[in-house]
Automatic annotation (TrEMBL):
GO molecular-function terms, A-Z: DNA-binding transcription factor activity; sequence-specific DNA binding
Record flagged with keyword Chaperone: no
Residue ranges of domain HTH araC/xylS-type in the record: 227-326
Protein's UniProt name: HTH araC/xylS-type domain-containing protein
Domain of life: Bacteria
Any Pfam family matching the protein: HTH_18
PANTHER family noted in UniProt: REGULATORY PROTEIN PCHR
Classification via Gene3D superfamilies: Homeodomain-like (1.10.10.60)
InterPro entries linked: Homeodomain-like_sf (IPR009057), HTH_AraC (IPR018060), PchR_regulatory_protein (IPR053142)
Assigned keywords, A-Z: Transcription, Transcription regulation
Length: 334
C-alpha cells in the first residue's frame, strides 16, 4: 500500500513477522529503544511486531509464541505506557508480578527487565513525551494526572482488565493496516486521538492508587538482587555453574536463591545459566556464519557436543547445524 502522503505528515503503520528466534531482529521492536531478548521456553519461536506512528507519539505491539526475557530501556525523552494485552499467566517485570491488562507507567530512561511466562504473549507500548501526555490528559479531563517522576508505577487491576483499552488498540491497528492512498489526514488523525483517549481513560481509572513505600522498597531490593545475580551468572558464561559460588557472591543460601529464581524466572539458577549459554551460542551462530558449530559450542562453555545439540534443539526448535545452514544460505542470497 502506498501511504506516502500520510508518511510525509508523520503517520506510518508497519508490520514485521519474525520466523525463528532472532535477537537482532527483536532489538528494535519498541521504537527508538533497544531491548535485548533471550528465549526461555522450548519450541520454535515466531513473532509479529506492529508499529503505528503519529506525530509526537507511537504505539508498538508484539505477539510472541514462546516465553522470553527482554531487557532494555525507553528513550530518555519519552515516557512509556504499557500493558500485556494477552498473557495466560502473569508475567514478571522488574521483579514484580504483572497480570494481563494491568497498566504500567514508566518515567523517561527507565530500565526494564520483563519475563513472559505464557507460550502466547502479547504486549503493547505507547511512547509519548511527558508534556504531550499531560496535554492529552488535560484536553480530555480538564485536569492533570500524577505521573511518576522516576522509576515506574504498576496500576492495580481493573474489573475488566482494561478491556476497553485492549479493544481500542486492536481496532486502531486493524484500521491502520488498511491505510491506502485514499485515506485522508482527518481519518488517520482520528485514530491517533482515539488511541490517546483510551490510554488517558485507563490512566484516570488508576489515579489515586499508590503502593506503600515499604512495599516499593522491597521491590527495589529484589530488583537489585536480580541484577547482581544476573551479572554474576553472565560473568560465568563459559564456566560450569556453581551454586556455592553464586550463594557466596550474593550472601544468600542456595534454598533462598532457588525460591527467588523460581518466583521471577520460573527456573532454577542452574537452568537460567544454561539457557543464557544456549542463547549466547545462538547469537554466535547468527553473528559469525563462518564459525563452525563445534567452535561455537566450546566458546559458549559446552564441552559435550551431543548434549549441546540436544539442549539447543529443545530450546530453539531446531538443531544448531540447521541455524548455521540457514544463516549461510541467507548470506549467500544477499
Amino acid at each position: 500500500m502506498d501511504t506516502t502522503f500520510l508518511s510525509a505528515h508523520g503517520m506510518h503503520y508497519g508490520c514485521l513477522d519474525i520466523d525463528g528466534f532472532d535477537p537482532e531482529a527483536l532489538l528494535g521492536v519498541v521504537k527508538d529503544a533497544r531491548f535485548e531478548q533471550r528465549l526461555l521456553g522450548p519450541g520454535y519461536f515466531r513473532a509479529r511486531a506492529q508499529r503505528l506512528v503519529f506525530p509526537g507519539f507511537s504505539l508498538d505491539r508484539g505477539t510472541y509464541t514462546q516465553p522470553v526475557l527482554a531487557k532494555g530501556m525507553f528513550a530518555p525523552d519519552m515516557m512509556g505506557l504499557a500493558l500485556a494485552s494477552h498473557c495466560g499467566e502473569p508475567m514478571w517485570l522488574n521483579g514484580q508480578r504483572v497480570r494481563e491488562g494491568q497498566l504500567m507507567v514508566f518515567s523517561e530512561d527507565r530500565e526494564v527487565a520483563v519475563r513472559s511466562v505464557s507460550p502466547l504473549w502479547q504486549w503493547v507500548v505507547l511512547r509519548i513525551p511527558r508534556s504531550s501526555l499531560q496535554a492529552a490528559v488535560f484536553a480530555r479531563l480538564q485536569r492533570e494526572l500524577p505521573l511518576p517522576q522516576h522509576g515506574w508505577r504498576l496500576c492495580p487491576r481493573t474489573a475488566d482488565d482494561n478491556l476497553k483499552l485492549k479493544m481500542c488498540v486492536q481496532f486502531v491497528l486493524q484500521q491502520a493496516a488498511r491505510w491506502s492512498p485514499a485515506t485522508s489526514m482527518a481519518e488517520a488523525s482520528m485514530l491517533g486521538e482515539l488511541l490517546l483517549d483510551a490510554f488517558v481513560d485507563a490512566l484516570e481509572g488508576a489515579a489515586g492508587s499508590h503502593e506503600s513505600s515499604r512495599h516499593l522498597g522491597r521491590l527495589e531490593q529484589r530488583e537489585r538482587f536480580l541484577q547482581r545475580a544476573e551479572a554474576f551468572l553472565c560473568s560465568q558464561d563459559a564456566l560450569q555453574y556453581s551454586s556455592r559460588a553464586l550463594g557466596c557472591a550474593l550472601s544468600m543460601s542456595e534454598r533462598q536463591l532457588e525460591r527467588v529464581f523460581h518466583d521471577v524466572y520460573g527456573m532454577t539458577p542452574k537452568r537460567w545459566h544454561q539457557v543464557a549459554r544456549l542463547n549466547q551460542a545462538r547469537q554466535l551462530l547468527l553473528d559469525e556464519p563462518r564459525a563452525c558449530v563445534t567452535e561455537v559450542a566450546l566458546r559458549a562453555g559446552f564441552s559435550h557436543l551431543g548434549r549441546f545439540a540436544s539442549e539447543y534443539r529443545q530450546l530453539f526448535g531446531e538443531r544448531p547445524s540447521d541455524t548455521h545452514i540457514s544463516v549461510n544460505k541467507a548470506k549467500m542470497s544477499h
